[in-house]
């Protein structure tokens, strides 16, 4: 159990009726501990201070008074040193120009130079700002050119320049590039202002991104945030973290190599599903990037979102609402095993309480009742090679619809790309209840003739003898990715039905193969909203199942008695194409049906 406050120093500090008040040249210095205040914090005078150091954090409860005063909370956070690379930030503090209750807008000029070389851990000085492309680290000088917010409103979203002196609303994120010449390494910033608290809302819009983040001087639980009842209908359930290759020494947009690492987590908080940004597969020395390792170009996030972290969210379909951060989402979690600031060189410190296990390569482990694997798909366009990773989760709780916290909405698309589809959306991760009869279509877009390669990665909780095939319908070949990669030369096209992930080679018969001798027919009666299976020869039917076009099982009927006709209701199905699989003693018959209710 951690003590709530390390030490109280100088002047007058009071903690009364769930309120913390710091007055008259007093300060609280919090070293590697947590301060919990049920209601409000009052930093009354300009010289009233709270210093959070070495993972010290402030958490506030369900009080509604709102913080006040013109004093400052000071908290450190590290961003990347590299001057070519963006970090996405979200300030944990607001302005102190007026003494009011509640949260105030933030300005980047509240970011101080922490003067780490001095003997006192509370020293700082104002940062400098320049209109040059690059800043400097000693003294700290920040370039104005790269300070932008990204907001959505109505039917559009846009980058908005904020510079050092324009207001950034509480909860909104902003971009800032590093200030050093090194490719890797971290730069410490000192955020100073009124601590944010309470419910903070930011507008989102249908299918559009908004740059938000953790607005508190404490960690924030991504599971609580994603699954909050007010956020379920506002955002699509994925968080998008920007990552960029800092070895590309250019400020020109067309030269950037980067993209969005995509993250989600289940409501219990014990299953992380994520995919890296699309990066070149090979470096200049032809060394393969180890996809999944949290290093430059392939970093990862944890369950807990650290102080200052910014990220994108995407508005849910039909949403013109608000996404909320709340005090109930806050948690005390030091940066380490479950909390990573998304930058180069994450902290190696470990948390005391680890509820998610990780592999040596940095990828999270799923619980024993889950299965998972990833597929790396390599594209070669104009002699440049890059890789898109997709992930599949398997659990009995997965449904035919969207499984929030287990499925990843794709951040962006490339002219040559791979993805799954569900409900007219593109996904880089889906979830299914596992069944060897699953058929999972893989959509592949090809812009120019090239070499295409499928590789398996991160297989968890599958039996060693369970094959995982890429079935190529054009060549009618089953390629077990557990034995070897599948590589081919492919022409430009949008391949919606060519490639499928399956788990058994087909002994499947089509109706054309089967019906002439056995007269078994499948017919969809949309007027009666029923599927009819006619079996006049009384074949031994074992099961009848309906699978949607994405390979998810909608229903499964166990046949206990052989009959000449079977009827299954399709009244609860959405309009669309489905696959009917009928299992006999020695074969499976498959047929597509069209449901129109």
Oligomer: single chain
Number of helices: 2
Low-confidence stretches: 1-11, 290-297, 344-353
What overall form do the CA principal axes indicate? elongated
Give the biggest sheet: 12 strands, mixed
Approximately how much helix is present in the residues?
A: under 10%
What Rg, in angstroms, do the CA atoms define?
A: 27 Å
State the secondary-structure class. Answer: mainly beta
Mean pLDDT: 87
Question: In total, how many domains does the architecture comprise?
Answer: 3
Strand content: 35-45%
Query: Roughly how many Å apart are the termini?
Result: 59 Å
Would you count the extended β strands for me? 51
Summarize the structure.
The chain has 597 residues and is an all-beta fold. The protein has two helices and 51 strands.
List keywords for this structure.
2 helices, 8-stranded mixed sheet, 12-stranded mixed sheet, 597 residues, mainly beta, Immunoglobulin-like
Q: What report would you give on this structure?
A:
- 2% of the residues lie in helices and 44% in strands.
- The strands form 13 sheets. Strands 28, 33, 34, 35, 36, 37, 38, 39, 40, 41, 42 and 43 form a 12-stranded mixed sheet that branches.
- The protein has 597 residues and is mainly β.
- The chain starts with 6 loop residues before the first strand and ends with a strand.
- The protein folds into 3 domains: 7-331, no CATH class; 371-392 and 411-418 and 432-502, no CATH class; 508-595, Immunoglobulin-like (Sandwich).
- The model is unreliable at 1-11, 290-297 and 344-353 (pLDDT under 50).
- The longest helix is centred in the last third of the chain and has 8 residues, at 511-518.
- It is elongated and about 95 Å long.
- Strand 45 and strand 46 (530-534) form a beta hairpin.
- It contains 2 helices and 51 strands.
